[in-house]
Amino acid sequence: MKKSKPSEPVVVGGGLAGSEAAWQLAQRGIAVHLYEMRPHTMTPAHTTGDFAELVCSNSLGSTQGTAPASLLKDEMRLFDSLVLRAAAAAQIPAGSALAVDREIFSKTVTQSIVDHPNITVHQEAVTEIPPGPAIIATGPLTHQALSAAIQQALGDSMLSFFDAAAPIVLTDSVDMDHAFWGSREGSRDYLNCPLTKAEYQAFHAALVEAEQHPGHDFESSAFFEGCLPIEEIARRGLKTPLYGPMKPIGLENPFEGGRRPYAVVQLRQDNAVGSLMSLVGFQTNLRWGEQKRVLGMIPALAHAEFARYGVMHRNTYLKSPALLHPTLNTRWREDLWFAGQMTGVEGYVESAATGIMAAVHLADHLAGLQPLAFPRETMMGALAYYITHTAPEHFQPMNANFGLFELPPDIQSIHEKKVRRQWLRTRAMAKMTAHVEEMGQRMPRHAS
Q1: Are 267 and 278 in contact (CB under 8 A)?
Q2: Is the previous residue joined to 39 through a cis bond, with omega within 30 degrees of 0?
Q3: If you classify domain 10-163+315-439 with CATH, what class do you get?
Q4: Separation between Cα atoms, residue 5 and residue 10, nearest integer Å
Q5: How far apart are CA 431 and CA 151, in angstroms?
Q6: Between 2.40.30, 3.30.420, 1.10.10, 3.30.1120, what CATH number should domain 167-309 receive?
Q7: Confidence of residue 223 (pLDDT cuts 50, 70, 90)
Q8: Phi, psi angles (nearest 5°) of residue 59
Q9: Is the pLDDT score of 228 beyond 90?
Q10: I want to staple 45 with a disulfide (CB 3.0 to 4.6 A). Which of 55, 242, 322, 360 is the partner?
Q11: Quick one: pLDDT at residue 5?
Q12: Pick from 279, 255, 251: which is nearest to 267 by CA?
């Protein structure tokens, strides 16, 4: 690793969090060095050397006003989020979700990073914890040597779990005689593949008996609940998938006179031209041959061609409540921050949000200011508070959700969920706007 000047911070990792962190620092006029080991050193999940490559879903969460993911994105826009800039440029139809063309999205982020005059990109692996001001945002697939260095520094405080990505099929290989367009919101943004009761039962039986990749036979506790492989969901009970990724509620099957199907698999557009479709909620660790066989039992996918089979990779994250301040810097070294999934947040947007927070706090540090924690009444602040204050022995990755907020007594008495959420959303945006103004960091400040 090449040395930077003492005053120039280092960001390790060019994923969502690292790219966002480097961008935030650069937009504040700070010269920053961004290290990314790809493409020279690849991971089991990535396929390119581009920054912010999406390896699981191509959705960045809901855009509905009262959804927690929507609130989180609105807060991030106050900081001129690079990830959300790129998402807007790469957006494709997905109902109430912000889905993107993966290639356009990552290339937009990459170009923005490479072109920025305040960012110096180093395409090399970092194998030790950098000295001086630094943000480690290497994600769940940290280089083995750097992971070992972090492990040595933290003792036994490193935890791990496993994550899986869903298969992608060619759109024109889907049998449209057994599929229909529609969504639970009334749009035509999803391609639905219905199954009868008999078809579903046969599919379920094959799914739970299918062969997994060797070495990945984990107990269910090894998985994060928000990204369970479909076969693991199926093992929890015959009807469990019907309440998860295969739920038919809100969908009408035109092949059955408008009746609700017994079960359904939804496909979501995965690129701008619509030639690729990903299976929604179908992360899997099955052998590739088994994926083709078992998924081929879904009538609409009987002759499907796979652009990518589902894959599984090892994720690592910190026991953050015992290690990090609410400002995401470490308790054992004030000038070292962590961001992204390593901190224990789960989700693309959540990871990028921690990149913003780490960069803001590092900028304060460089200016000789006391870093100011984000208000707990905001979604970003609530996430930071959760991952640094929950009981370390029970710590598990967390998505953005309204359960992170404390409700005042007068709001607790309101039984209508939408009314409560709208109140929380309004309060959060007011608090974040005031916070941005207090920090004097309304973006963009030094736009290129």
Answers
A1: yes
A2: yes
A3: alpha beta
A4: 10
A5: 37
A6: 2.40.30
A7: low
A8: -105, 135
A9: no
A10: 55
A11: 65
A12: 279
Using CA atoms of 378, 67, 141, 245 in order, give the dihedral in degrees to the nearest 10: 160
Which residues does 381 contact at the CB level (< 8 Å), separation at least 6? Answer: 373, 374, 375, 431
Please list the residue range(s) of the chain that carry CATH number 2.40.30. Answer: 167-309
Question: For 77-110, what is each residue's pLDDT tens digit?
Answer: 999 999 999 999 999 999 999 999 999 999 999 9
Q: What pLDDT is recorded for position 6?
A: 62
Indicate the pTM of the whole model. 0.83
Q: What is the 3-state secondary structure (H, E, C) of the chain?
A: CCCCCCCCCEEECCCHHHHHHHHHHHHCCCCEEEECCCCCCCCCCCCCCCCCCCCCCCEEEECCCCCHHHHHHHHHHCCCCHHHHHHHHHEECCCCEEEECHHHHHHHHHHHHHHCCCEEEECCCCCCCCCCCEEECCHHHCCHHHHHHHHHHHCCCEEEEEEEECCEEEHHHCCHHHCEECCCCCCCCEEEEEECHHHHHHHHHHHHHCCECCCCCCCHHHECHHHCCHHHHHHCCCCHHHHCCCCCCCCCEHHHCCECCCEEEEEEECCCCCCEEEECCCCCCECHHHHHHHHCCCHHHCCCCEEECCEEEEEEEECHHHHECCCCEECCCCCEEECHHHHCECCHHHHHHHHHHHHHHHHHHHCCCCCCCCCCCCHHHHHHHHHHHCCHHHCCCECCCHHHCCCCHHHHCCCCHHHHHHHHHHHHHHHHHHHHHHHCCCCCCCCC
Give strand pairing partners of 161.
315
User: Is the model's pLDDT at 407 over the cut of 90?
Assistant: no
- Cα separation, 409 vs 402, whole angstroms: 16
Residue intervals in the chain for CATH 3.50.50.60 = 10-163+315-439
Contact yes or no for 19/139 (Cβ under 8 A): no
**Closest C-alpha to 389, from 403, 370, 401, 404:** 404
Q: Among residues of the chain, what percentage have pLDDT more than 90?
A: 71
Dist. CA 43–CA 233, nearest whole Å: 26
* Cα distance from N-terminal residue to C-terminal residue, the chain: 27
Cα(364)–Cα(343) distance, rounded to whole angstroms? 20
CA atoms within 13 A on the CB side of 48: 15
Average pLDDT over residues 41-69: 90
Residue 313: which residues within 8 A CB-CB, separation 6 or more? 43, 44, 45, 55, 140, 141, 162, 163, 164, 165
